[in-house]
Amino acid sequence: MSDLPREDRARMAAQVWAVQFPGPGVATSWTRSAEPVVMVPYDPTWSTAYADWEQRLRQALGPATQRLDHVGSTSVPGLGAKPVIDNQISVPELEDEAMYEGQLASVGLPLRTRDSLHRFFCPPPTSPRTVHLHVCQTGSNWEREHLLFRDYLRTHPEVRQGYRTLKQKLATIWREDRPADTDAKTTFILDAARDAEVWAAATGWQSA
Q1: Would 21 disulfide with which of 45, 115, 118, 187, CB 3.0-4.6 Å?
Q2: 172, exposed or middle or buried, with CB in 10 Å at 0-12, 13-18, 19+?
């Protein structure tokens, strides 16, 4: 897929998304201009940035959220990442968007996409891309898989190092092509996710 023109990759990625995450699909029509892939070393202030967002989100959502977690690469100490904080919110009823959509828009995070597994919120094109927010159902596979992948990377330095090296390499090759950068990491992520399940079964891992 990475050998195809960017336009073809974007079209195919949209088709794959529809299969992986069936549902109503894109919720908004706005799009961002192309942004380069920028990888930076792990920054300890990312945990502080997450804590600030956690406080804002809890105040905005109140009882609508049952748990809020820092996920993604910025949640793994020692792992380089794009400097975007990924928040994951678990809610009692994913389909009940009235319980959380307006509150999230009030803190600058409008709904971007929806599918049958989660909702994705991010700043509009007029604001910097510094945070992403994923809303999922409490107790869902989406919730569990993202927490497990995070904890697996946190506790397995050799896997974390391999991922960091791959991310740095791909950010150089695909700096001007985010879809290709994402596509090129798929095999590593799937392999790591499979190994994480083995680790979880062997250790009795449970999300904190």
Answers
A1: 115
A2: exposed
- Asked whether residue 54 is domain-assigned, the answer is yes
* Helix ranges, the chain (H): 6-20, 45-61, 101-106, 141-155, 157-173, 178-184, 186-203
Contact 49, 85 (CB under 8 A): yes
Nearest alpha carbon to residue 77 among 45, 124, 125, 99: 45
Domain region containing 101: 33-199
pLDDT for the residue 5: 58
- Write the burial class of residue 49 (CB in 10 Å: 0-12 exposed, 13-18 middle, 19+ buried): middle
Q: How many domains does the chain have?
A: 1
Q: What is the pLDDT of residue 193?
A: 94
Separation between Cα atoms, residue 168 and residue 80, nearest integer Å = 8
Give the CATH number, domain containing residue 78: 3.30.460.10
Residue ranges of the chain with per-residue pLDDT less than 50: 1-2, 11-12, 14-24
Residue 137 resides in a domain: yes
Read off the pTM: 0.83
